[in-house]
Amino acid sequence: MMEKIFRASILNPIDANTWRFFQDGALGVDQGIIMRMGDFTTMLSQIDADTEVEDLDGVIVPGFVDVHLHWVQHRVRGRFSGELLTWLREYIWPEEARYVDTDFARAAAAQFYGDVLRAGTVMGMSYSSPHAEATQIALTSMRGDWVIGNVLMAINAPRTLTDYSLHDPDALRAFMRQTDITHYALTPRFAPNLTAASLKALGQIAAESPCLIQTHLAESVAELQWVKELFPDAAHYTEVYDRAGLLTPRTILGHCIEMRDEEWRCLRARGSWVAHCPTSNEALGNRRMPLEQVRAYNIPFALASDIGGGPSHSMLHVMQRFLGVHREAGVSVVPQEALYRSTKAGAECMGRGSIGGDLTVGKRADFVLLPQKPAVDSIEHWFEECLSGNPTDLEQRPLGTWLSGARVA
Ligand code: GUN
Ligand code: ZN
């Protein structure tokens, strides 16, 4: 294969405060990898005259990374809301129980991957149902770069789910042996669905395997109260996971809202990541994640849709509300951070910082084309315009999505 140049405006995230913009940019791709990136006219002098150039009308940004969603809730995203625990029992757990049916699961997986690529998401972390087969289906029909785990849930849930859970450590080890561990996440659903002893056994597995670990932490007040009753001798919710050895730099914790100072200190000491899900938190009536605390304790975090808690899989929608909810609370947050937390930070969170997440040379050419070239002096304004609209608009806003340099949506 020959190198191909994509010519368009390019916006590349650098960090939480910085991005780099090329009005007339170029991205050189060979065998799915970014070979060069920069200003088109400068690049012209460095490439062969017969190099293929494709003009794209819009702005190239890195493909989005969604570090916390439930693919088995995609069909019902935005359909239900309400207090977390009631919402789980009444709507979500019955929906997940349907994934025992492999034909149903296969059709839902195809729909899910098609929809997220259309919306510009190329990478992420996904909770499956407890079923081994549905999880295998999500792994084998994967489009993009996903890390997926069957939720482990042994107690305090309907038997339509707990009967299928691989919460037995040996059954889980056997399942993990036949799974590509680079795409697998150990996924205790949340503390109320497991005993202290099972959590500890999972911590043991986490220590044996290089896999990522994902769970929910301190999402709602009622959940916090329930954890207190179930684990009366734990100093706080975070300690329930910490005692089990589940908090590591490979651990991604969804939500982290109802947190005390010592819990932030614990996360900081363990190097664990937070998956911040502003749209889900709003939809389920939970409080705002205290971004000021996350910043003060220097906790690494990335953005996520948490579908079906979040009403949409669009990371543009998540970015819109990320800026919205914190600004409404008087906390300053810039569009540069919204883009960074939805791309590069997500890849870093997944241990794939050297593979993807931005458009630097050597990384995989996973990118999205957003509409309309902005005037050079108003990139922030253009980007915020790109984030405006309702979830359905935003799901359709990208003009195209490319995986390893090949157009897929
Ligand atoms: N806590 C435990 N399970 C879930 C879930 O499926 N969604 C959300 N938002 N929180 C959870
Ligand atoms: Zn979740």
List the helices and strands and how they pair.
Blueprint: E1 4-15, E2 18-30, E3 33-39, H1 40-44, E4 52-62, E5 64-70, H2 84-97, H3 102-118, E6 121-128, H4 132-140, E7 145-150, H5 159-162, H6 169-177, E8 185-186, H7 196-208, E9 212-217, H8 221-230, H9 237-243, E10 251-255, H10 261-270, E11 273-276, H11 278-283, H12 291-296, E12 301-303, H13 315-328, H14 335-341, H15 344-349, E13 367-370, H16 379-386, H17 391-396, E14 400-403, E15 406-407
Parallel strand pairs: 1-4, 5-6, 6-7, 8-9, 9-10, 10-11, 11-12
Antiparallel strand pairs: 1-2, 2-3, 4-13, 13-14, 14-15
Helix pairs in contact: 3-4
Distance between the termini: 22 Å
Q: Which CATH class of the largest domain?
A: Alpha Beta
Strand order, main sheet: write it out. Answer: 3-2-1-4-13-14-15
Instruction: Find the structural class using helix and strand composition.
Output: alpha/beta
CATH architecture label name of the largest domain:
Alpha-Beta Barrel
Biggest sheet descriptor: 7 strands, mixed
Fourth-level CATH superfamily of the largest domain? Metal-dependent hydrolases
* Number of spatially distinct domains: 2
What's the alpha carbon Rg, rounded to whole Å?
A: 21 Å
Shape: globular
Q: Uncertain regions: pLDDT < 50 for 5+ in a row?
A: none
Strand content: 15-25%
Instruction: Write down how many β-strands occur, each being a DSSP E stretch of 2 or more residues.
Output: 15
Number of helices: 17
Average pLDDT, all residues? 97
Bound molecules: guanine, zinc ion
Q: Assign the CATH topology of the largest domain.
A: TIM Barrel
Could you estimate the helical fraction of the residues in percent?
25-40%
